[in-house]
Automatic annotation (TrEMBL):
Name of this protein: Taste receptor type 2
Transmembrane segments: 17-46, 140-161, 202-224, 245-272, 278-299
Family matches, as PANTHER family: TASTE RECEPTOR TYPE 2 (PTHR11394), TASTE RECEPTOR TYPE 2 MEMBER 60 (PTHR11394:SF32)
Pfam families, A to Z: TAS2R
Gene expressing this chain: TAS2R60
Similarity field: Belongs to the G-protein coupled receptor T2R family.
Membrane association type: Multi-pass membrane protein
Taxonomic lineage of the native organism: Eukaryota, Metazoa, Chordata, Craniata, Vertebrata
Length: 318
């Protein structure tokens, strides 16, 4: 099944697996708080001022998609714990999978477009095409948003069609969930329909993200080397700014790649469903969604200023 891989009859009995499930739910709560804060802070500013920087519009979109995704993950995890023998293609799980597929794809695309924006706006390449993109990219942010929603919707519909056809096949042929014939059809669809579709859906934004991050990190690395040659060392503010930017980008890239690889391994069925290794992979996937908002809060000046104002008002200081 698309989304998280589940098999009838599995149950969470391992104590270590139960601990990981609790950790996963806590990570979801942290991600909800972090992404909710980012979405609320920038969203309120957007409403009050009537406008927002193009980069911050992408951040709001990413934060909102992650915020909603974590609620879906929590709901799906709790449902699986309460009904471990539920048929993977029943209407409830189809509904949750539909939301998960859309929000997960949208999150990947928003992350990729954010890396494109960072790359074009921050990198110091002098190629004419690159300079032309610097002037045009801000105008394309609405198209980035609509393309992300459109592509995510299209692939989600394809996933839903596959899930629904498998479910209808069981109903039409009066098959039980544990029927060998039904399971063979299901395995065939997982292998030759769902898995290739997942790879296409996830690999395209990941490739865009990876290329942009390599270009941006290379550009910042060269710029930092030049700054070191013309200044007294790492204590210079300009060099420290470059180091902080590089660390933030490297952490973003590592979290994104970890998220993608964990998704692929989980989709490939390498880990036994609802087993300890399965929950390890799930925890890694959503650790990325929990950690990245925290990095953004401390690396983005606008968000950091909002956080400082919240702290000041809470402490009663002007």
């Amino acid at each position: 099944m698309n989304g998280d891989h589940m098999v009838l009859g599995s149950s969470v009995t391992d104590e270590k697996a139960i601990i990981l499930v609790i950790i996963l739910l806590l990570l979801c709560l942290v991600a909800i708080a972090g992404n909710g804060f980012i979405t609320a802070a920038l969203g309120v500013e957007w409403v009050l001022q009537g406008t927002l920087l193009p980069c911050d519009k992408l951040l709001v979109s990413l934060g909102a998609s992650r915020f909603c995704l974590q609620w879906v993950v929590m709901g799906k995890t709790i449902y699986v714990l309460l009904y471990p023998t539920a048929f993977p293609y029943n209407p409830v799980l189809q509904f949750l999978a539909f939301q998960w597929d859309f929000l997960n794809a949208a999150t990947l695309w928003f992350s990729s477009w954010l890396s494109v924006f960072y790359c074009v706006k921050i990198a110091t390449f002098t190629h004419p095409v690159f300079l032309w993109l610097k002037h045009k990219l801000s105008e394309w942010v609405p198209w980035m948003f609509f393309s992300s929603v459109g592509l995510s919707s299209f692939t989600t519909i394809l996933f839903f069609i596959g899930n629904h056809r498998i479910y209808q096949n069981y109903l039409r042929n009066h098959l039980q969930p544990w029927n060998v014939t039904g399971n063979s059809i299901r395995s065939y669809c997982e292998k030759f329909y769902f898995f290739p579709l997942k790879m296409i859906t996830w690999t395209m934004p990941t490739a865009v993200f990876f290329i942009c991050m390599i270009l941006l990190i290379t550009s910042l690395g060269r710029h930092m080397e030049k700054a070191l040659l013309t200044t007294s060392g790492f204590r210079e503010p300009s060099v420290q700014a470059h180091v902080k930017a590089l660390l933030a980008l490297l952490s973003f890239a590592m979290l994104f790649i970890s998220y993608f690889l964990s998704l692929v391994l989980s989709a490939a069925g390498i880990f036994p469903p609802l087993d300890f290794k399965f929950w390890v992979a799930e925890s890694v996937i959503y650790l990325c969604a929990a950690v990245h908002p925290i990095i953004l809060l401390f690396s983005n000046r606008r968000l950091r200023a909002v956080l400082e104002r919240c702290r000041s008002s809470r402490c009663g200081t002007p």
